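TA notes. Do not distribute before section.
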Amino acid sequence: MHNAFLNGHLDETVYMKQPPGYEDSSHPDYVCHLQRSLYGLKQAPRAWFKRLHDFLISTGFLPSKIDVSLFHYTAGDSRVFLLVYVDDIIMMGNDTSLLDMMLRRLSTTFKIRDLGPPGFFLSIETLALDGGYLLSQKRYMVDILKRAGMTDCKPLMTPAAVSHVTTSVSQPFDNPTQYRRIVGALQYLTITRPDLSFAVNRLCQYMHSPTDDHWGLVKRVLRYVKGTLHYGLRLTPFASSAIHAFFDSDWASCPLDRKSTSGYAVFHGSNLISWLSRKQRTVARSSTEAEYKALADVSAEVTWVVSLLRELGLHSGQPPTLWCDNLGATYLCANPVFHARTKHVEIDFHFVRDKVASGEFVVNFVSTKDQLADIFTKPLPRPRFTALRTKLNVVAHPP
């Protein structure tokens, strides 16, 4: 989309000084009354999106109630989905002729450029792989290494050391802006690299006052990125569209505040579609409580995913399955006897238990060695890390 923000019509009254070189010599004190938005105006993003939204609605698109940036169009068995990110638009569907017609309609009002199949979108490259696709950010990874001055660094096979413990006695890092810039870039990289989620989440916890020790952790992650430039997230056609999720927690894992780290991985069929690694907001007084907080987090995420799929008509109707490696948390989902012991997690308890009691979710036990979310909660030895990385569909693209 060319000059996206300039397409927005302003509803508010906004005045602007006469631009240099275009002043009216006879009325130098006059100001310009803006009819359209300009880059830099606070109203510009909202005005642009409103005009695009109104146009799409007029052509038959329906806005998603779950995600405001998503629109969908249905004509018989033909479906078209349109996703907006500021001035970048991606459109997909199962009918080529309908897609072409929608693009022509869009081009009658907005100046757009059709780039064809999504080979490169928002720094994410789409590569064909084994009948499916690989989402790769190789160019973005190379750019991060250049910005950090580590293009020729020695690669490593894991992003975090198992035995490393961050202390509070290290000297403050002399360039905190560089730290925040690199870690912020690594955050965007986790869009296609879930194997980096735990390490990057840990780095983000020290944004306010990084130390030399923390910068050492950043360099280790970058050395791992250097060794896995060809890796990306694989998406494949699947026979089953059932939703299943793995979740886990590492109880009191932070040595500074003793808060637990939780993580989850949500699959739609065989494809990983959502994941998270995050320190819990409160201190858990038992491993079961920490696990149950992780269960509440993944339950909220799965509820959102199911709502979106139902709205788009893509939900199989089967209740999602949540896999837990803690028997206490598994029993707690359906057994009210435990309620008296866990008043401090009452909200999470009732939220999850209602989902299980109504049949919306099924919570099953899985052994720790088969718990895929283990990679989001703690540093792992190389064999374990590599095995879980593969199960998350993070694979290498052949050169």
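Switch to the second chain here.
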Amino acid sequence: MKEYVLLVFLTLCSAKPLFHPSYMTLKNMMLKDMEDEGDSDADNSLFPTREPVNPFFPFDLFSTCPFGCQCYSRVVHCSDLGLSSVPSNIPFDTRLIDLQNNKIKEIKENDFKGLTSLYALILNNNKLSKIHPKAFLTTKKLRRLYLSHNQLSEIPLNLPKSLAELRIHDNKVKKIQKETFKGMNALHVLDLPSTLLELHLDYNKISVVELEDFKRYKDLQRLGLGNNRITDIENGSLANIPRVREIHLENNKLKKVPSGLQELKYLQIIFLHSNSITKVGVNDFCPTVPKMKKSLYSAISLSNNPVKYWEVQPATFRCVLSRMSVQLGNFRK
């Protein structure tokens, strides 16, 4: 027995460090996140502050851990192992799984089944092209999901409503459906592919659009922000999406027509109905130089706003296809 204990001790002493720099950064970031959430229960924290009972043997020699991985304090560290699939035997009380820098092509339905305490999942830099729509069915406490540098063509379906951070840039995503983030009240970071052509963020609780929000999406053609709580769109925000053709801002709390619409040469459809817009200026939609507009408006919706439509000057809609393209009256029931 003494020989066995000595062998284990020597093995632990000669092992490589468990955490590499990027992993330590992530750990510190999540520690701060846990502190901000006010989680004072040490048993429920991601990285318990209490020392192990035996400081010479911090690892549980008899607990399950996927082959080749390193497990410690409810963290399963399996990066850089050349894995082609998610390993089995992940402990059910795991809170962080690091699977980055592998060769995983698919996330199957039961890969994370039963991991009800999972807080963070790192899958950056794999070969993912498919994620089963029920893969996150039981991960109802998942807060951070990292999927960057893969081959995904769409955002995974049925993401947990607990999700607070999603990183998915450098994939093949071209379109994001409006139902993708529905109900995710706490979602505050979206690191999305810069090649997006469509972005639908309808039915969330977005209150402000800031200058940096769409800076990366120069090719965006359709933008959905309807049914949110938007009160303000910062000047210059829409100039970052010069190729946009359709914008939905209906059912928000805007008090004026967003600035910069007249500079969008290809914009054809703009929905602003059911807001709190009280005034429409003569240059809110059309440029002062006619040749700047490459595509005429086919639909401008301003109905159900407190606009005195009889005061709107006819020249306001000089760059529309026809007068039937404009809905201006208040059609309240």
